Amino acid sequence: MDKKQRILWGGATASSQYEGGFTDSKGLDTQDCRAYLPRTSNATEETRLLTKEKIEEAKRLDSGKYYPFRNGTKGFEHLEEDIEYLDELGLDLYRFSISWARLFPNGVEEVPSPEGVAYYDRVFNLLTEKKIKIFLTLNHYAMPIYLVEQYGGWKGRECIEHFMRFATFVFERWGNLVEYWLPFNEINAGYFSPFNGVGLLKGENGFDLSDVFQALHHQFVASAKTIKLAREMKLPGRFGSMIACFCYYPLTSRPEDNLKLVFEEQMNQWYCMDILSKGEYPYYAETFFENKNIVLNITDEDKKLLKENTCDFVSISFYTSSVITVEEADKTAGNLVVSTKNPYLKASEWGWQIDPVGLRTSLHKVYERYGKPVIVSENGLGARDVLTENGEVHDEYRIDYMKSYYEQAQLALEDGVPLEAYIAWGIIDIVSAGSCEMDKRYGVIYVDADNLGNGSYKRYKKDSFYWYKDFIQKYKEQNNG
Question: For the chain, how are helix, strand and coil distributed in percent, rounded to 5?
Fold first, then answer.
């Protein structure tokens, strides 16, 4: 590999967390049904493990609850302004997602909503005019609620056909403008966060694991089908797969801790990417399925599709590392998961342990396992920012975080890992996908809104905005543009 390869620096949002624009022309999706709950020990779990009753409540206009994803941070209204900010930052690329329900309100329509098409025409045209490369996520934790009610979410094979109609339209309309494609965001979240990942509702006894893994299988097939179609259409962009990456450590040198780590890492972290990158189910899945009484319907055609349509690159979200032990130990929060506390790491206010060296370690592991170019498609610090009276946000803690992670990313590149891009998550403040709140901010651009949707939604540049702009400019100068 050429050691002089330059990392592309970017920023990201997700349609459900950013856009808002909840109108009659946009259908209700899974994220629109998640209510804000004041932060308690179990609030995050309640907002992402929804039941049929919670969905019915969300559909009522008189529920009395606030549904923050219906507002997002009003990117629908501030689009031109926000893209000007992205251009001023000097971003190489912008990762965003398309709302399935904005184009196809129920997910089953034969033709898309004209209003939805017009909005995304604006997005693509503005980014193209600014010469900002596009990293497009087709499905980022949001599917039309009709598909959940009609087919049980992704456990229904019918969703593949409807997703392909959605993907086909996107390919035909905007396919030549996209540099990087991602069919599904953090696909392994379907296992540890089934409502977000695969649209499953929680029953009286929780989730049936056969349903969870059947739903994941249908997403694997849909991913392979989109890649196959794009290649047949000769689209210029490349296709990736993405997992939430956790960099597992054993708490002690006790052999049982390390053995448990192997098993946890296999199913939580590697399972989905093994299939999407290598084209077949891994050896350990069969034993796991037998032990858990999981029965799947996998056809020979499915196997052929997976084998012949693997991803071109692998991408990861990386925020925090996890500690594994067979003993009882103090716990802390993470990216939709709970982990054992690491005594060597500091944590954010939300309990996410800060581990830049863990990122470098993970980049090595991912490349060693898959041998394909790597992209960090999400990373950032969720923190409570304060807007001063003169419209400033002094977030030196975020600057320190970015410095430490970006340094380790560049060291991984020097080590020989072909890291193509690094994308800052929530480049503009967005509603937190984990906790449904605004207090937990990631952006370098502040949005004046609170947890209940109050505020002007006016944008302000944080100190981290100026730091990131300067970092990108200097990086380009040092690496020949």
Answer: 45, 15, 40
> Which residues, 6+ apart, have CB-to-CB distance to 91 below 8 Å?
9, 10, 11, 132, 427, 472
Assigned domain for 206 exists: yes
Residue-level pLDDT at 1: 42
For the four alpha carbons of 184, 186, 191 and 194, in that order, the dihedral sign comes to negative
Q: Where are the alpha helices (DSSP H) in 298-349?
A: 300-308
List the catalytic residues. 186, 378
Is 1 domain-assigned?
no
Residue 256, both tokens: 């049982």
pLDDT at res. 6: 94
Q: How far apart are the first and last CA of the chain?
A: 19
> Does some domain include residue 263?
yes
Q: pLDDT digit string (tens) for 305-349? A: 999 999 999 999 999 999 999 988 776 656 566 778 888 999 888
Report the sign of the C-alpha dihedral through residues 446, 451, 457, 458, in that order: negative
Residue 354 CA to residue 340 CA, distance in Å, equals 13
Q: How many C-beta atoms lie closer than 10 Å to residue 2's C-beta?
A: 6
Q: From the DSSP assignment, how many helices (H) and strands (E) are in the chain?
A: 18, 14
Secondary structure class of 8 (helix, strand, coil): strand
Is residue 254 within 8 A of residue 368, CB to CB? The reply is: no
**Nearest-angstrom CA–CA distance, 406 and 89:** 16
Q: Say if CB 230 and CB 171 are below 8 A apart.
A: yes
User: Sign of the CA dihedral 177, 180, 183, 189?
Assistant: negative
Exposed / middle / buried, residue 327 (Cβ in 10 Å: 0-12, 13-18, 19+):
exposed
Which amino acid is it at 334? Answer: G
Residue 103 counted as domain residue: yes
Domain of 227 in residue numbering reads as 8-478
